[in-house]
Hints:
The protein has 77 residues and is mainly alpha-helical.
Amino acid sequence: MGSFSIWHWVIVLIIVMLVFGTKKLRNIGQDLGGAVKGFKEGMKEAGADTPTSTTQNPQQVSGETIDVEVKDKTTSK
């Protein structure tokens, strides 16, 4: 009673096919497969776009010094 047998899954599959129809299920499968394929290609492109060499911080590259005045922040309780 703890797990489903193969016959339970066959009955569920038949009910799903009757409710949605095989054509609609095929279209959903194709759409899902296309989305996964597009995601994988996007991940490959994103991995290829990142440079493999070490990049420096833009502040270090420019050689400029940023002068900032620090003020005390007092909070009233």
